[in-house]
Structures are given as structure tokens and as C-alpha cells.
């Protein structure tokens, strides 16, 4: 994507969050998750280190929020990025992609997707 396309996507997303009641509520709920207060720290560490390990209690938002923090950070700068999350089970992979897409008001397969590999 070009910088202009990224900026249009970012603007569209931020406008949707402000204007769509459901997304506004989701955004408010996301901001109450324990990990939300670490958003700037996480993006700063990822920017300055090749490897960052994030730990936290179950349900704090690590899986669903960190990819969105990074995407929002990059799109806010007009830069493209690819974020890959791994999960040991197919159902986890699918449900995380669906949850993140839901929280962003998108469909799975647009900007958020998943790929399942079968290893034996």
C-alpha cells in the first residue's frame, strides 16, 4: 500500500470509531483493559528492539490488543506493516482474528486475517 492509501485507511478507521456507536463502546472497553496503559511502552520497545517479550495475566489484552497497538502506531505514521501472531490451535487462531476484526469494525480477510498450517 502507498502512504496515501494507508493514511486513508487510518482516517477511515478513526472516523468509524468516533461515529459508530458500537465501535465507540468497544473502544472504551478496550481502553479499560490492563494492557492499555502500556500501549506507548509497547510501541516504543518494539520500535527500538528486535525482540520484545510481553507477559501479563490471562485476559489482560495481550493477544487482541498488542497487534492493534502496533497496527495503529504504524498506520498513524502512514507506514505499512505486517503483524504475525502464532497460536497452537486452529480455533484460537480463527477466534483471535475474528475478535480483532470485530473490534476494528472490519471483516476477517480485509486487513485482518489468519492462516492455519497443519503439522504432523
Overview of this protein structure:
The protein is mainly α and 120 residues long. The chain has a domain at 3-80. 56% of the residues lie in helices and 0% in strands. The protein is built from 5 helices and no strands. The protein has helices at residues 3-19, 21-31, 39-48, 62-76, 90-103. Helix 4 (62-76) packs across helix 5 (90-103). The longest helix is centred in the N-terminal third of the chain and has 17 residues, at 3-19. The chain is globular. The termini are far apart.
List keywords for this structure.
mainly alpha
Low-confidence stretches: none
Taking all Cα atoms into account, the compactness measure Rg is 15 Å
Q: Number of helical segments?
A: 5
Structural class: mainly alpha
Mean pLDDT reading = 91
Give the overall silhouette: globular
Series of secondary-structure elements, N-terminal to C-terminal: HHHHH
Topology:
Elements: H1 3-19, H2 21-31, H3 39-48, H4 62-76, H5 90-103
Helix pairs in contact: 1-2, 3-4, 4-5
Brief overview, please?
The chain has a domain at 3-80. Helices cover 56% and strands 0% of the residues.
Amino acid at each position: 500500500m502507498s502512504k496515501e492509501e494507508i493514511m486513508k485507511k487510518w482516517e477511515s478507521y478513526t472516523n468509524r470509531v468516533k461515529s459508530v456507536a458500537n465501535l465507540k463502546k468497544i473502544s472504551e472497553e478496550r481502553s479499560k483493559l490492563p494492557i492499555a496503559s502500556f500501549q506507548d511502552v509497547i510501541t516504543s520497545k518494539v520500535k527500538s528492539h528486535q525482540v520484545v517479550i510481553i507477559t501479563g495475566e490471562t485476559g489482560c489484552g495481550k493477544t487482541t490488543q498488542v497487534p492493534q497497538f502496533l497496527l495503529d502506531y504504524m498506520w498513524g505514521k502512514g507506514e505499512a506493516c505486517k503483524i504475525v501472531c502464532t497460536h497452537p490451535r486452529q480455533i484460537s487462531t480463527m477466534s483471535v482474528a475474528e475478535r480483532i476484526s470485530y473490534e476494528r469494525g472490519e471483516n476477517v480477510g480485509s486487513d485482518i486475517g489468519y492462516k492455519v498450517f497443519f503439522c504432523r
